[in-house]
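Weekly modeling sync, notes
Attendees: S.R. (lead), two postdocs, one rotation student

Agenda item 3: backlog of single-chain predictions. S.R. asked that every request posted to the team notebook include the full sequence so nobody has to chase files. The rotation student volunteered to paste the first one in as an example of the format we agreed on. Action items at the bottom.

Example entry:
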Amino acid sequence: MRSATRAKWATGAMAVALAAAACGGGADGASPPGVLGASWGDPQNPLEPANTNEVQGGKVLDMIFRGLKKYDSTTGRATDMLARRIDTSDSRNFRITLRDGWTFSNGEKVTAKSFVDAWNYGASLRNNQRNAYFFRYIEGYDKVHPASGAQHADTLSGLTAVDDRTFTVRLNQTFSSFPDTLGYAAYAPLPRAFFTDHAAWLKKPVGNGPYTIDSYTRGFQMSLRKWDRYPGADKARNAGVDLKVYTDSNTAYTDLLAGNLDLVDDIPAAQLRNVRSDLGDRYINSPAGIIQTLAFPYYDKDWNNPGAEKVRTGLSMAIDRRQITDTIFRGTRTPATDWTSPVLGTAGGFQAGLCGRACDHDPAEARRLVEEGGGIPGGQVRITYNADTGSHRDWVDAVCNSINNALGDDRACVGNPVGTFADFRNQIARRRMTGPFRAGWQMDYPLIQNFLQPLYYTDASSNDGKWSDADFDRLVDRANAETDRGAAIAGFQQAERVVRDHMAAIPLWYQNGSAGYSRRLSDVTLNPFSVPVYDQIRVG
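Predicted structure, as returned to the notebook:
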C-alpha cells in the first residue's frame, strides 16, 4: 500500500509562490511512474460531499467515494454499488441493505450509520451545505432545514439505522425515482473521523473510493494515489492521478502536446481546428449530459419585472447558435432547442424543438421584443463568465457580437470575465450578478428531473438566479409523486414548458465531452457526464 504523506494546504505567501511557479499553467514536470497528470481547476469549496455542486470538486469526490449506487460509465444507468438491495412497496418507504466488506481508507467499517449520519449532516441548516436540498424529500427535512427561522431538530425523522447493514428511509411524499438519485455524491457515506475531527478531515478528506488524497496545494496540484485495499470491483488500473491546476486551458493543451501533461478534458475552442491532426485517435469527442445556458439574476428587479420576459426572449432570438457552434466549436456543440439534453433520449424526456421560435435566430423579432420589453436594463448586457477556461471568452464574445448585430448596437452586449472558476462561483453565491451569466449544467444523474428541479425549483441548490414560479414547483412536486415512470416523465415535461414560457434561462447549446491524452495512456474514455473514467485508465 502506497504510504500517504501529510496533506499540504498552502496558504499565504507560500500559496502565491507556488501559483506563480505554475505561471497560470499547472504543476511543473511529469508525474511519477504509473501516475497520470491531468488538467484541473481548484474546487469552490472544501470537499464535503453535501457541499460540492460543481464539476472540479465533483471529479475528486467521484474518485474518493463510492455510494449506494454508481452510474454506468457507458450508459449512465444507475447500478447498485454499496447497496445490496433497495426495497419499497409504495415508493415512499425504502429499506436499504448494504453489502458487507466495505471500509473507508482509514480502516473504519462502512455501516448504515455512515449513511444516516452523513445525510443528517448534509440536511442540517446549521451546517450550511449547498446540497442540503437533495435531502428535502426525506421526512423531517422541514425541521432540520426550515425555510425560515431556527432549526427545530438535529436529525431527519425519516432516517433510521436498523443495524450495521440496514437502514430505512421514509419520504414525505412518493418519489419513484429516488433510488436512481443515490449515486450522486451528496449521498456518499462519511466516516466517524469526519465528525470527531472535522478540521483534520477537511485538510485531508477520507473516503471509501478507489483513490486516496495524498496531498493538495491550492492553486497548484492535488495528488491522488491508488488505494490498494479498496474492496470494490472497479479498482484503479493506474498508480494514481495528479490533478494539476490550470487557469488557462490553452496552456494545458500546449503542455499536453509538449509531453508535460497526460490528459486534458477541456479542449479549448481555439485548438479544435488542429486537434485531430495534433492527437489523431487520442482525441475524444463524445455525447454528454451537458447544456450551456445563460441564467439571469432574478434578485435584481430590473431582470424580474413584467417586461423582462420579452427582453430575455428577444436576446435568445438575437443569438445565432448555429453559426457559433459551427465556427467556434466545430462539432463539439449542437444548438439547444430545449432545457435538458439529447442523452436522455425521447423515452427519458428529451423534447427536441420545445423552445420553438424563441431559439431561432431572428434579428427583426429580437429587436421588436427587446423594445416592447422596455429595452435592456441599464442599456447594456454584460455576460459574466469565468476566464480560466479559454473557450468561454470565445463563445461569449461571439454571443455578444451576434446580439450587437441583431440589435444594431455594437455596445449592446459585452463580456464580463472573472479570473477563476472559484471566484466566479463565489460571486454567484453572493448574488453579485447584475446581468446574464454563464450557467452550464452537467447532469448529476441521467433523469429529466435533474435538468429541471435543481436549476429552477424555488430555492433549489443550483438555482443560482433565484427564479421562482409556483406553477413550475407544483408540476415538479406532482411529477416526483408519480409511481409510474412514464407519468413522472410526462409531468416533468409539463414543468419544462413553464420554463420555456417564461424564458427562465436562455438555452444555448448541448455540449459533447472532449478530451485529449498522451501516448503514455490507454483505455481513456469519458462517461456520460463528460468526466474521464480515471480509475480505468492505464499508464505505461
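Discussion: group reviewed the output briefly. The CA atoms of residues 139 and 158 lie 4 Å apart.
Action items: rotation student to repeat for the remaining queue; S.R. to check formatting next week.
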